[in-house]
Recover the amino acids of this structure.
């Protein structure tokens, strides 16, 4: 029962759970694609995509708000918007800060048709009711697989983290640092090499402040 019920565990400074809250229920026709502050109010929001019924690919946000403090914190849905529809030729990589406007965006990669590997970022407007624009930062070479999005250089926006999966030197890691405007690559580096016979990448995340 209660399928789609969201639960948030709010952590204390010592990495223990302070309280858990239940902000909303995601309708069964929608699947969550990521979490991020898409309207720039300082509180993370939920972004989902319609996967069944009519209007498959319809994007929906659940804009969250927090009240109270400590163990008395309450998180609820302030508003829900429908900013657009996913292009079926693109696979969504996640919700990330593509530029420096302090709003998270939808980042995807072209998986069908021409220009395979082309990255696309749809930039949320201030109220998340629509998109301010779309940029195409660069094309990921065919020999590389994107493993995650994250702030790897402290720039307050995401970068692209990938692993070489064919053509020799499999396991070589690569980071493309995105420009401040989010429309290109500022720098590309090779931080290391993964032993692909022993390890698989499960997730990428910032581990130090």
């Amino acid at each position: 029962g209660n399928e789609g019920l969201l639960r948030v565990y709010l952590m204390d400074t010592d990495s223990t759970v302070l309280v858990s809250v239940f902000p909303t229920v995601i309708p069964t026709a929608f699947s969550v694609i990521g979490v991020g502050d898409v309207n720039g109010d300082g509180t993370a929001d939920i972004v989902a995509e319609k996967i069944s019924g009519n209007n498959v690919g319809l994007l929906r946000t659940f804009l969250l708000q927090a009240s109270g403090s400590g163990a008395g914190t309450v998180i609820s849905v302030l508003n829900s918007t429908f900013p657009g529809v996913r292009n079926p030729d693109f696979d969504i990589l996640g919700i990330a800060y593509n530029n420096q406007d302090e709003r998270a965006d939808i980042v995807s990669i072209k998986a069908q048709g021409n220009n395979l590997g082309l990255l696309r970022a749809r930039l949320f407007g201030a109220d998340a009711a629509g998109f301010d624009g779309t940029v195409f930062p660069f094309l990921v070479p065919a020999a590389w697989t994107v493993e995650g999005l994250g702030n790897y250089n402290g720039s307050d926006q995401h970068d692209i983290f990938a692993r070489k999966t064919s053509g020799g030197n499999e396991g070589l890691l690569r980071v493309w640092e995105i420009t401040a405007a989010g429309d290109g690559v500022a720098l590309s580096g090779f931080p290391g090499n993964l032993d692909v016979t022993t390890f698989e990448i499960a997730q990428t995340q910032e581990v130090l402040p």
